[in-house]
Amino acid sequence: GVRICKSTSDFVAAQEAFSQYDCPVLVLKFIETVMEVGAKFAIYPEVIPRFARIGATKDFSSRKGEWVGSLVGDNVENTIAERMYQVLESHVLPKLHAKGWYGVGEGGALIDKDGQFYFSDFNCRVTGDMAQTFQMNQGLFPGKQLVVFNGRRNGSLEDFASNLKEIASRGHRDQILNVVMAAEYPDGVRLHGGVLFDQNETLPENV
To answer: Which of 113, 117, 173, 195 counts the highest number of beta carbons within 10 A?
Structure first.
């Protein structure tokens, strides 16, 4: 697990929590972060190592480190992502492949003010914004960017589909919402999707 220590008491609690494990513990220094970038990758199930770059996203986290959302687009921090992929493909992914692992995943990194990246989180699984990254890379929304999020809406799934049909139908001239998943729960409809907008467009608050 990961412990974020903001005080001496947090650090002491982390020491106590990890003392029960007989394995290496990594202690990382604090980074003044100006940005987070996630580099999505794939490892093919083949004898000879072969990898694919799914795409990079600019990620947003809460103060506690939880994923809040992502910015998906054609030009998301290309220079930093390129350097991240070079390290992944030369040092990290070959080791995963050698252990027999294959599939899709993401290497998340913190970026400091000098543009230096520090890998902070690896998810060897499908991540929340991977479906949208695939869509963007397949050219489904040319010239657009997408802010990905999890959300909830009151009402039934039928009401949700009826009220948002135009703005969430791919190819519709008024589309601003891209919904990957929507399901009905007792507290309303929970959805995973994103807001589409033209690159460099300013979004009003409380969209």
So the answer is: 117
